[in-house]
Amino acid sequence: MSGAAQLDRTLAALADPHRRQVVELLRERPRRAGELAEAAGLTPPAMSRHLRHLRQSGLVEETHPEFDARVRVYALRPEPMVHLLRWLEETERMWSEQLTAFKAHLERP
């Protein structure tokens, strides 16, 4: 998948406030699906939909503890955020160059 396609998937996933809340919760540590639902104030089916979207976007990964395959533990994956950070840095650089050029244009006699 290209960097642009990954960025589109990441931004689409993060467009929802509940999914951003899940990402914030997972920044602290991996968590069980039920724990995420409770912390976010969502029903288990609603959380399941959000987690599916986050998995499909590549932002989170799902694992199962050896002792119980029914338990799902979610953790953040850093790769999609690297693409987002790179895009933000490039965008910031472009705007900085544009503003510098605009300022120079305005200051010309």
Quick recap of the structure?
This protein is 69% helix and 9% strand. The protein contains 5 helices and 3 strands; from the N terminus they run ααβααββα.
Describe the structure in your own words:
This is DNA-binding transcriptional ArsR family regulator. Residues 1-99 form the HTH arsR-type domain. It is a single chain. The protein is mostly helical and 109 residues long. The protein has helices at 3-14, 17-28, 33-40, 44-57, 79-107, and strands at residues 31-32, 60-63, 73-76. The chain has a single domain, classed as Arc Repressor Mutant, subunit A. Strands 1-3-2 form a three-stranded antiparallel beta sheet. The chain is elongated.
Question: Strand tally, please?
Answer: 3
Shape: elongated
Q: How many separate helices? A: 5
User: What's the architecture, going by CATH?
Assistant: Orthogonal Bundle
Assembly state (oligomeric): single chain
Work out the count of structural domains: 1
Low-confidence stretches: none
Topology diagram in text:
Blueprint: H1 3-14, H2 17-28, E1 31-32, H3 33-40, H4 44-57, E2 60-63, E3 73-76, H5 79-107
Antiparallel strand pairs: 1-3, 2-3
Protein name: DNA-binding transcriptional ArsR family regulator
Domain HTH arsR-type: 1-99
Organism: Caulobacter ginsengisoli
Core attributes:
single chain, 109 residues, mainly alpha, Arc Repressor Mutant, subunit A, 3-stranded antiparallel beta sheet, 3 strands
